[in-house]
Amino acid sequence: MTSDVAEAEEPTRRAMSRLRKLAIGTAIVLVLVLAAVATFGWAIGRRALPEASGEVRLEGLTADVRVLRDERGVPHVYASEPADLFLAQGYVHAQDRFFEMDFRRHVTAGRLAELIGDQESAITADKLIRTFGWRQVAEQELELLAPETQEYLRAYADGVNAYLAEREPSELGVEYMVLGTTVTQESPEPWDPVDSLAWLKAMAWDLRSNYDDELDRALAHSTLADPKLVAQLFPDHAASGNRTILTEADLPEATAAGTEGATSGDGESADGTATNADATQTAEVSSGPSPDAAIDPALFDKSLRSAVTAAQAALDAVPEQIGRGEATGSNSWAVSGDLTESGKPLLANDPHLSLKAPGIWHQVGLHCTEVSDACPFDVAGFGFSGFPGVVIGQNAQLAWGLTNMNADVTDFFIERVRGDTYKRGEKWVDLTTREETIRVTGGTPVDLTVRGTVHGPLVSDVLDDDKAGEAGVDAMVHSPTAEGTDLGDYAISIQWTALEPGRTADAVFAFDTARNAEDIKAAAALFDVPAQNIVFATTDGHIGYQAPGRIPVRNQVDGPVPSDGSWPRPGWDERYDWNGYVDPARMPRALDPAEGFVVAANQAVLPSGVGPYLTRDWDYGYRSQRIRTLLTEQIDSGRQFDAADMSAIQNDDWSAFADLLVDVLLAIELEDDYDAAGQELLRDWDYTMTEDSAAAAYFAAVWNNLLGATFQDELPESMWPDGGDRWLAVLQGMLDEPNHAFWDDKTTVSVRESRDEILTRALTSARQDMTVEISKDPDDWSWGSLHQLELEHEPLGRYGVPSIIRGYMNPAPVGVAGGTSIVNAISWDAAADSYSVTSGPSMRMVVDLADRDASTWVTVTGVSGHPASDHYDDQLPAWADGETFPWPFTREAVESAAQDELTLTP
């Protein structure tokens, strides 16, 4: 390898400069910090940063590979063979982000305590992941994959391992040096293809959809004891009045039926016959519970509540890798060439995920030097370090975007457990068991017994350190019948589609080489988990939508709870068992819808009763409806679309929350001029949550206080409103009922509050909050001063690492626009007593199918995972301002933009 001394010293200077700016409390701390500066500067500047230019010899290559990087360090890889291409991608990923990869594989294997030591949070996480058995499932998946996919995964692993060879941990990332001060750090193990597949389980887990709603319904019922009130907390998606992704008219005739054929996990129908688009219906699909659905009160007693609470606490301990809840929204849409200046389609996508340092995505181009059947790749876009290929992006024939479909792919089963058995029908059958040992670096190994039923692993007793079934949080509570018959203890198991081996890895490469709608359909049939909306556009002028995913079929059951998956189901009642999966050929799809565009932003795919039953817990469609409105307004104006219009829509800050509430808030009479000063800001407000807006800041505070005053007295703390779209739909249904039960504050004795009293309380409390948070003078208020993006490095941004290190690893906070359930969905959590950003557009891309080099992209941080690198957070300022960068795609454009070239030789 070659190296330039001046270039090596420059990162050292930057690292030292950044650390000098940190606050220092005492002279002793000053000495320690200066020592850390010298150590960091040397280790990061001279050891951890990779070579971006020159020549490197790699075992396993068959020919030279070129890696061209632009001014933001984004690599484009050119190779003559697929195996060389993915070997080089593995090498590049290890260059840029090996610690991130290593951290992920420790998480997904349940080995986090081996990496970061004897910390309770790590051990707890390991218990949960071992219970799920993500790595065991990944090991089974490897043998299911197409031979070429296995080849790509092995080549990728070879590339990673080539980078690891002869490098000490400190040469791979500063994280190893920091962790090494408290935990012995051995050289990382060689990368294995299973490490890549296990990462797909973490991705699928965070995008799994409605399990929180399912558990929350049970908790809410045990608190409210009124199915109608519970139903009002989970309104039907149609209550918002917003459009679905497709209408029945958009569908091919074969997919429009209200009930669908089911398939078993091995591609056969539920009764064992081969499946096809005309598969015989084997199970009816519930259309969802009505607000008056009967709930057996005996089932949801205190005993079950304890088990549900324990299950929820355990599942919350799974490390978040991509995002949860409101964080897993996204926007994607495509516009027909009939409506664009160029005459070719435009496509936009911005997945809303958790925001970390480094960001979740790694930008890359993967190009065969001569595209052919033998080497079919000419693709660029966004991928995950640790997994080969491109997950979202464009190739020479089409572009595609993904958004979470919110399909219900998890069910909780209430199990009755007695000793080592559980109840099935009238019998007691043996639980499955598996022994696991969690190694803890610097601590004592932890033994774990994983227990499961036919549905899946028991999760309500995972955090019990003494004996399964007797958790300190009352995970399982003895519940004999009135007659004294011992029915055992309540426990909660989870059934999840991703705990069965699948072929999602095959789907990634199928997307990368897709040419048309039929190719997208074929790739979607392989994309088992997570269930995602696929929006695509082609160079020959088509736009379309395709729903993939392994979707359970559930029988209609006249039983103690609705059978559509929206409530925990009695595991002893076999009628509630899954009955195969929806045939992929019947999943919703559309090509060139009549209105000239398609918008998928997590809203319902189809109206109720049309197509296969997917879930009842959709996003309520406020973002999607705003996108539709902006598209329709421009169409009606007669002005054609260009890429800049797509970017402008992605940055739209208009709030549907304000549209619903401001007139109601202005109708409240506030007698005190001090209180009214905040309310007056709303009078001429345009409802946009811009960074400099005082009205936006005040409105967010009102919304926060309104939710707290209305619901916190009614619900357990784990259910306190996060302020997302569901709560807007709930309020939308309550505003016309001034004496609705939820308006009453249960903490005030002998007083029944009405809507206007709660609204008054929210307005006055918000005024006081703003005074405390910012200033007494409303002229000093701004949304950006409250709404701060504070990116954390994982794990050095937390896990007990000293603040001086966190300050170095975490980029400086930045105030941002946007908000929850806004198109520019930079969200915050109303239940967290903070306006800090919890999630947002993890990247933004706009693809121009007429001129591939006119496309644009940006990520929240940068391509590098090394804090000393210029490319660690060099895209953050542009991202925060809603700007994007040119996206060179063709070889001519890539070479023109290249600032570094690394040649990998055999």
TrEMBL record:
Taxonomically, which superkingdom? Bacteria
Q: Which Pfam families match?
A: Penicil_amidase
Concerning Gene3D superfamilies, the annotation shows:
1.10.1400.10, 2.30.120.10, Glutamine Phosphoribosylpyrophosphate, subunit 1, domain 1 (3.60.20.10), Penicillin Amidohydrolase, domain 1 (1.10.439.10)
The record ties this protein, via SUPFAM superfamilies, to:
N-terminal nucleophile aminohydrolases (Ntn hydrolases)
The UniProt keyword set, sorted, is: Hydrolase, Membrane, Transmembrane, Transmembrane helix, Zymogen
Q: Where are stretches of biased composition, namely Low complexity?
A: 253-267
Task: Read off the lineage from the record.
Answer: Bacteria, Bacillati, Actinomycetota, Actinomycetes, Micrococcales
Any transmembrane segments, and where?
Answer: 22-44
Give the protein name, as stated in the record: Penicillin acylase family protein
User: Which residues lie within the region annotated Disordered?
Assistant: 247-296
